Structure of Brix domain-containing protein:
Amino acid sequence: MLRRNTRLRREYLYRKSLEGKERQHYEKKRRVREALEEGKPIPTELRNEELALRREIDLDDQDRAVPRSIIDDEYAGATLREPKILLTTSRNPSAPLTQFVKELKVVFPNSQRMNRGGQVISEIVESCRSHEITDLILVHEHRGQPDGLIVCHLPLGPTAYFGLLNVVSAHICFIHD
């Protein structure tokens, strides 16, 4: 597991280092394209690379025309596989929080609910990474009322906190109607 995380981190840093080179290459192609469109001579520093750059310009489509940052692309592979979501709570959840998490399990397709017990969050995250779970949702409570939701996209991806106010369970809505 540690080797896998190290490999993922190394790949991320390598792709990040390539972004500068891709940006320079893009600028060269842009300058050649502008010179060709305006009928101006090719800049002298690009004359040796002109033929290769022209070939690449002809082959480029809309997706490759502008280089993309890998930082903005954490969800690029989201459509390639079905998401697996793990729902868990604070260490000693109350009955209303447990009921709320059961309702969330119905809301999110392909999700699993796990009783946290005494596990530390770092252990849960490592377990999720090893089982290829794509998202971790942690639900917090204050005095028996759900008040917070932490959504973490794994393995590298962003984490968001959502505050919950005036939570009403579905089973309470059906009883009072």
Q: What stands out?
A: The chain has two domains: 2-73, 85-176.
